[in-house]
Amino acid sequence: MRLSWRAMSEKLGKLLGLCTVAGVLLAGMFFPVVGGLGLLSNRADDNVGTVSADLAGGQLPVVTTVTDSAGTPIAYLFDQYRVPVAAGAISAAMKAAIVASEDKRFYQHGGVDPQGIVRALVHNGGGGAQQGGSTLTQQYVKNYNLYTAKSQAQRIMATAPSYARKLTEARVAIVLDQQLSKDEILARYLNIVYLGNGSYGVGAAARSYFGTTAGQLSVPQAALLAGMVQNPSAFDPVRHPTAATGRRNEVIALMQQQGMITAAQAAGASAAPLGLVGSPGPVPEGCLGAGDAGYFCSYVVDYLAKAGISPDVLNKSGYTIRTTLDRGALAQVKAAVDAQVPPRTPHVAEVMSVIAPGSTRHRVLAMAANRTFGLDAAQYQSSVGLPYQPENLGAGSVYKIFTAAAAMEKGLGIDTVIDVPPSGYTSPIFVNENGAPVPVHNAGTYAGQLSLQDALAQSPNTAFVKLEEYTGVDAVVDMALRLGMTSLSTTPASDRAGAPSIAEVTKSQNLASFTLGDTPTSALELANVDATLASHGIWCPPSPIEQVTDSAGRPVPITEAPCTQAVAPQLADTLLTGMSKDDQPGGTSAAAAVGWNRPVAGKTGTTQQQESAAFVATTPQLAGAVIAFDDSPAPGPICDGAPPYSCMTGNIFGGKTPARTWYQAMAQILAGQPVLPLPPSDPRYLDGGQITEIPDVVGETVDTATADLRQAGFRVATTTVDNRAPKGTVLGENPVGTSVAGQTVTLDISTGQVPPPPAAPGPAPPTGG
Prior knowledge:
- It is built from 27 helices and 27 strands.
- The model is unreliable at 5-22, 29-46, 124-132 and 760-769 (pLDDT under 50).
- Helices cover 39% and strands 15% of the residues.
């Protein structure tokens, strides 16, 4: 076909224009401070050396592995499924295939290929299929910027179709080519490139598609992966096997043309089947892939977030997190929970957590729920942290542990006989929102007096509300916080923004119902309460972490709360032994059903409407808590059965379903371990001290007040408070009422000075300008 002079002139003009553009582009790359485009490139990136150094030593987003205590993986956390491999661990076939298909002059150019740029400009300017002039080094730079971007704006900039971006990438590629060997650049590119089906990098793709490693990839396998780089979706061998085969064979032909393989090798490779294994794709991402360990995995992620390692960091950093999870214990806990309340039981959820006590650590060994960890609520799945987050219905009489501990700290002994008012007792501190007394009822008939130990076992409500009159509600709440119910101080009491915590509201409103356990409760924290008592009163955070290491095996520091002496060791030991007589109906039969032969300290609990029930208990080796509750949007009473079910008037108790679950699991977990005794009681906390009226000394001088208190048998401590009252005047005392002789009473003493007023605000800063 002959062209007219006009057509020939247009073709020539386009060619000259392309040559001019190519020259400017190359000038911008190699002489970046000259010319408009070079200046534009400078504005896009004023520090190419810094960017190149970042890429030379940068960390790609890689998979974090969560393991059990034995080091066996239970979950993988990632944004991009990537299995990094060293240059020497990538097969020669893979390196040849990617060079043949993407950058045949890779080993000749210096990071940027001028021939490739001119060829692409000429070809693209002719209106045909678009060709890229980017080298593998430039593609590495682009992909690195894309896959390490921290915001959508950065991701857009990494792929913006502008000459400024191209020039910046080219300049960085030139510097990078001088800093790294060709083999290292090639390996970095193969580690970062996306190869479809959620696989980033050749290591992940080799495992996903062929069930092999990057070092074992054959010619046809390598050619398939290299061919996908241009368009992972169009050449997806799972969805488009014909297109993928055609593209693979094109790469094989390029390898032959470039002398990388022989004609015979090319023919054999082209005739080979795709050879995919299973269902190509990454391993299940996150805790949803952890099976029965899903709740434990979720707790690990939450715990590390509070310890200073965010989920975003976990998903990119390639850490190895060795946890405290005992797979054997988990299996027994899950089996027991499911046996008592099958996973698809309507309305009824059950959870259990197990902790190993200790003086320096409280290691979480297992946690499980009858609900399968997952996202499909219609299939009775849940991704909420059921075994460790507070459930809203409470744990019932288990909270009487805190009242008993507070009373013992104030002077009572576990053998002290306390009053048990009859059902219907109206306490001056048990009132409704209008301040009117509310009758307190018991679930049975009890003697008019019981020892504190028998009261813990038989659990009359009136006795413990009466006991709160002695201890004060604040002391009981504080005791719960100290022993392990830490979420009470962080969980808002309502959905209102900025609402005070449950602990704050309970104290401010003097809610004596606290001892009856109507407060949202975490089974994990409840287990840790018993772990604290079994650790001679030492509280430690319930930790799921043995060690966190980075991708190089170096320890990663995490911030965990320090252990504290929550209560006196003798109090803890005596209370623990005092909890060994829990004869709530069903408790004894639950133990006998599994042939239980170990000393155990336990407490049952049931909420007033029997919408939930709990059992918490410990041996010297292990502490555990079980809560069964109605998890429907409109909770109602639960009846004990096989399985439990919703009913009009509930009859579930902590000594039934929860106790049966606890004993079934613990009997198996502890099988083969020595039978250990509970700690001995201390005489001071057995019989208690002499209960004495504390003199009211408010308004007296400090000297007079001190003399009066010492005369009554109390020790005295003082603090000072700025106040108008005369210096040395007693403004307040703590505790008040009665206490055991010998206890310390703290006096607030006036300084006689008025606190200075707040400083006046300075002049407002100038505005405008």
